[in-house]
Amino acid sequence: MKKLNVGLIGYGFMGRTHSNAFRKVNNFFDLPYQPVLKAVCARDEQKARPFATKWGWESVETDWRRLIERPDIDLIDICSPNNTHAEIAIAAAKAGKMIMCEKPLSMDGKEGEQMVKVIEKAKVPNMVWYNYRRVPAVTLAKQLIDEGRLGRIFHYRAKFLQDWTISKDLPQGGAGLWRLDVKVAGSGVTGDLLAHCIDTALWLNGSIDTVNAMTETFIKKRKHTLTGKVEKVGIDDACAFLARFSNGSLATFESTRYARGHKALYTFEINGEHASIFWDLHDLHRLQYFDHRDEGRVRGWRSIHVTDSDHPYMANWWVPGLQIGYEHTFVHQVADFLNGLGTKKPASPTFRDALETQYVCDAVLKSAKTNRWEKVSQI
Ligand code: SOE
């Protein structure tokens, strides 16, 4: 097993999920590489040091450029806010480092294109952390669709609902709350939550041709943590859009951070000619499946408990019937990335795959402004 020295940039919520994944992955998966937690990088050394101690990072850097220059770092993992992704990824690629980048890839499609160009020229392995693809039930959905069990697909329906920004007293900017600052996040729920739904949808159901969207910013002004002033809010608090896939199916997507009572209700349903599937993040180890070809007397929705050893990823965990959760999706993502390095078949989503999601987000935000159907740029 070869060592792979990782340099992590950022130590927020995602910094924790990634650190956990790098630490655990070799305990559960037989892989050609072993990640070594070499250095964590954050501007505030006082905060980065306890994080490094807690998660086992060997050293601390306070300047990402210095981290990239280090000859002992093989892989740069970017979990800093969205407006930093492009500059860091481009510099890391030019320095010949492998790159893993938090979602969304970029602030918009144009920026994403520049990233893809440089990364592909440098020929460095790369991946974007769209972790929900690697929930075993979601991967099972992919298998069932690819086996043709659903037949022709008619409908795709996805939503991602949260309720944590309803208070008008919540400021914008700063730790965690940069998601409310358009200059840092690029957009609101479209890039933060719908990007997940779009990534899964493109993976399961192929490309999207056109979209028609509406967005709303319910709280128009919020205090900015960094300036102390009340400033205009530039993000979309809610977004809903219609879409047409290239395979002829119709879709609805909805996301908001104003759905009181819902914390992370990511669901999707797909209706095909023969069968339908439904998945819900709040019940993530189950896949609901209805197959019209079943004998009529026993036909009905099956609730598949995706915990058996012939289910995706599950043979690597406990014994059949015992569940895993959210953090394991990140472990799976690292395992697939490392296997991809070994076999030279890059695991998805690569930067190029994630650019497709940016193009859909761009078209959605454009349509919300023009009030028209908009075409999605194709790669
Ligand atoms: C926002 O609240 C958030 O943390 C997103 O940034 C993540 O991508 C999503 O998985 C959960 O919600």
Structure commentary:
It is a single chain. The chain has helices at residues 13-28, 45-55, 64-69, 85-94, 109-122, 136-146, 182-185, 189-205, 326-343, 351-370, and strands spanning 2-9, 33-41, 59-61, 75-78, 98-102, 126-129, 153-161, 208-216, 221-223, 230-232, 238-245, 250-256, 265-272, 275-280, 286-291, 302-305, 374-375. It is built from ten helices and 17 strands. The protein is globular and about 65 Å long. By secondary structure, it is an alpha/beta fold. The protein starts with a strand and ends with a strand. The mean pLDDT is 98. Bound molecules: alpha-L-sorbopyranose. Residues 162, 192, 196, 264 line the site of alpha-L-sorbopyranose.
Entry summary:
With 379 residues, the protein is α/β, with parallel strands linked by helices.
Helix content estimate: 25-40%
User: Rg from C-alpha positions?
Assistant: 21 Å
Cofactors, ions, other ligands: alpha-L-sorbopyranose
Low-confidence stretches: none
Mean pLDDT: 98
Side by side, the strands of the main sheet go 16-15-14-13-7-12-11-8-17
What is the number of helical segments per DSSP (H or I, 4+ residues)? Answer: 10
Instruction: Please summarize the sheet with the most strands.
Output: 9 strands, mixed
Distance between the termini: 36 Å
Strand-and-helix sequence, N→C? EHEHEHEHEHEHEHHEEEEEEEEEHHE
Overall geometric form: globular
Question: What percent of residues are in strands?
Answer: 25-35%
